[in-house]
Amino acid sequence: MKYKDCVAFLYESLPMYQKVGGAAYKEDLNNTLALLEALGNPHKDLKVIHVAGTNGKGSVSHTIASILQEAGYRVGLYTSPHLRSFRERIRINGKPISPYFVIQFVEEHKELFDKVKPSFFEMTVALAFHHFASKNVDYAIVETGMGGRLDSTNVVNPIMSIITNVSMDHMQFLGHSLAEIAREKAGIIKEGVPVIIGETNPETAPVFEAVAKEKHAPIIFADQMYQVVDPHVTIIRRRPCLIMDIHKEGQPHMNHLLSFLTGDYQQKNILPVMAAYDLMFDRSEMPIYTFKHGVQKVERTGIQGRWQILQNQPLCIADVGHNEAGIRMVTEQLKRVPRKELRIVFGVSEDKDLDSILPLLPKDAIYYFAKARVPRAMKAAELQQKAAGFGLQGKAYTSVKNAYRTAMKDASSHDVVFIGGSAFVVAEIV
Predict the structure, then answer these.
(1) pLDDT for 345-371, tens place per residue?
(2) What is the DSSP string of 137-182?
């Protein structure tokens, strides 16, 4: 098989959530376990850090992977969804899985796929674990796809679990309250395995504490132990850079930490990363400068779409935030960006709760509504109509690229163009 034919087979033969939504969602781990059993259970040989959460789990996963890579380890990183290439989902030290490995895997296991009938995500998880084990990674950083308890990645017995936060998203699968969603995410907590919670919330904290107690798992609430102090953005090497200090229990702990991920939400994401570092290593094993360099070099892991600045004059920013909490954070940051006009290229999936998202968007912006090239994306005209009900004015466009080109053509050098609403919208631009 050629690589493009192989990927086409995966997309067309296996149900994919990004394309068909709930039809691809499986309410048990049986398919994943069957695939892994046939592959010799490669996941059992991996030293896994398992990361869940509504927002921030991608940034946290990439950052931890970069730190471990900086320390000299061979690090597997599994994330989803991809933006441009399927191979982005499975990386070792930042390098995507080779087309040859994907082709070989599919060709060797077609009969297995016919027998098990896995979803696209179940197959991808099995491929990732098989790849990491065959390449003898020292650590595997594994991001959940959705939820936790029933997520295909939840077959691992990790050395550490991280749950970044909980907010309202995928309610049709995970529950209609923060406590219900937290219960699903708490499913990654394993017997005796330390768990780090990124953000404390009065509705979710008791859920995490109860499950951790039941599982005899040490639990840390990172935002109670660590604080970001004096965060500010400056220009380094002609690029915006976030500089911050971190205190632990009110005392200086790490000074002058630099990150080229400048979204405000990275100040939250760094806290569980700091906790993971302190829990795994003492400073004789991994010096402070290794941690700092790892954070600073996170882009080598392939992370994209996190307050990503695509160009200046006009300033063009892309962000994959797509639920209420994610949209709230990026719009709050947009308010502080100096500009003449704000132009927003915006698209969403059909299942998004627009009643919670659209009121957060700035009414003084000019909108360019678009439908991403995935079946689950909402039609641009429908989104335009619903947005108008919330005082958001703009036109519908035939494609994301057409909307983006028009916004850039309309913009003066003092305007800001923002692309967001969905990872699939961002994927067509970055």
Answers:
(1) 999 998 888 999 999 999 999 999 999
(2) -SEEEEE-SSSSTTSTTTT---SEEEE----S--HHHH-SSHHHHH
